[in-house]
Write a structure and sequence with these properties.
This is Mn2+/Fe2+ NRAMP family transporter. Keywords: Membrane, Transmembrane, Transmembrane helix. The chain is mainly α and 103 residues long. The protein has one domain. Helices cover 92% and strands 0% of the residues. It is built from 3 helices and no strands. Helix 1 runs antiparallel to helix 3 and helix 2 runs antiparallel to helix 3.
């Protein structure tokens, strides 16, 4: 009886973690507009720098390019991390179901 209670408690905890990760992934992907706005603003600044013949336009362009590249790398890394955690939880659940069906 006690082991059944703990099993149900663990199952609820795993389901809660799975739902939380799914919501986090969905929220993370819905914030894509933030990185897109960084790209648009950077492009606008670069165009204005070259239009007004700013002496450091090339340096500003390089810095903005590095900022955009870094934000893209971080965005994808976080996305991948959340996906992998979600996959791991799903695999663990499948293993538990397989063990229960096998015995």
């Amino acid at each position: 009886m006690n082991s059944t209670y703990h099993h149900l408690k663990d199952t609820k905890k795993e389901e809660g973690q799975k739902e939380l990760l799914e919501r986090n992934l969905e929220a993370h992907r819905s914030r894509r507009w933030v990185t897109n706005s960084i790209y648009v603003m950077s492009l606008l600044v670069v165009v204005l720098c070259f239009y007004f013949h700013v002496p450091q336009a090339a340096i500003i362009t390089l810095i903005l390019f590095l900022i955009c590249a870094t934000s893209e790398i971080l965005y994808r890394a976080l996305d991948k991390k959340i996906e992998l955690r979600l996959k791991r939880i799903k695999q663990e659940k499948r293993k538990i179901i397989f063990k229960e069906n096998k015995s």
